[in-house]
Input
Amino acid sequence: MLLWVRRHPLIAFFGLAYALSWWPWLWSALDPQNAPSTILPPGPLLAALIVLVTIGGWAAIRGFLKRIVQWNVGLRWYALVLALPVAITLGAVAINLQLGATIVVQFAGWIDLVARFLFVLVFIGLGEEPAWRGFALPRLMDGRSALAASLILGVLHVVWHLPLLGVEYDASNVLPWAIAVLAFSILVTWIYLHTDGSLLLPMLFHSSVNTSAVLFPWFSGDDLVVLWWLFAALWAIAAGIVVLRYGPALTRARDP
Output
């Protein structure tokens, strides 16, 4: 088994990531009253650590963890990862209001917003992004363009969210949500390549996306569906600009 994992680290990683994340889904199906959730966000991180220690020992673990706290990447990148998701979400909300949408729920407050961001950063951002971008992405880029690797990872990331279908997503918004995830995957690869492989920046980017999603409950019914499509369109435009600017490599550096 150890030899197989060393030969097929990506397959082993995704299999473990799905298994370690999805077991509460089975619990919720059998015992919905007591199940903690339908998905476990730290599953990908645990999977990456297990595979890394198998194929590279503790040296690989140390190198991986070091990139999670790699913070010296330039203030402009911090501004981008924190502000772009907010700008896209506010832009989608503003267009939705211009189209006649009605707000049904008011803003909860800044303290709740900060608490949500910190929770997402520690539980979801840390649980997912170091694994997706720090373990899977470089291996998917072996023999592929950064764009192709991003799209493959984006599809696998969409599939990973399957237990949340019917909980956070349904037939009315799953398509625009998936488009946004694919666009996010392209953009976060671009950020990763331009910050020397920092895993902190993808964590902050993911946290900003999920925190700005507090605006979605402002709307309901058809207004909410329109908001999802506007959100997806703006993410797709942002990703398209990056692809047009940098090409399939998503960077102009000689050695990304």
In short: The chain has nine helices and no strands. Residues 72-246 form one domain.
